[in-house]
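Appendix C: a fully annotated inverse folding record. The material below is reproduced so that readers can follow the format used throughout the book. The structure is listed first as tokens, followed by the designed sequence.
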């Protein structure tokens, strides 16, 4: 995932899965697609935390500050090829 949306939620009353669900809903409303990955600080994931919350895969990343959520659509071999194809087409036409 190269591009994503950063979401901040430090509400101590909410559980991690609820925070991710709220962020994912906002992402869907804003971008029209559901996020598939969410990077969080490893300290936010305990041993008992699930690997998925609200249908979004949770991935630990030390570069993400606590209480921040970096959501986006993970790259699959197929959508990576589609993105490369779009970029090649733009390069041929001279557009960006």
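Designed amino acids, in order:
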């Amino acid at each position: 995932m190269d591009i994503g949306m950063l979401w901040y939620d430090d509400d101590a009353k909410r559980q991690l899965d609820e925070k991710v669900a709220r962020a994912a809903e906002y992402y869907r409303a804003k971008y029209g697609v559901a996020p598939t990955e969410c990077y969080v600080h490893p300290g936010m994931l305990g041993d008992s935390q699930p690997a998925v919350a609200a249908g979004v895969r949770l991935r630990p990343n030390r570069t993400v500050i606590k209480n921040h959520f970096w959501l986006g659509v993970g790259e699959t071999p197929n959508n990576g090829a589609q993105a490369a194809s779009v970029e090649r087409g733009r390069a041929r036409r001279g557009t960006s």
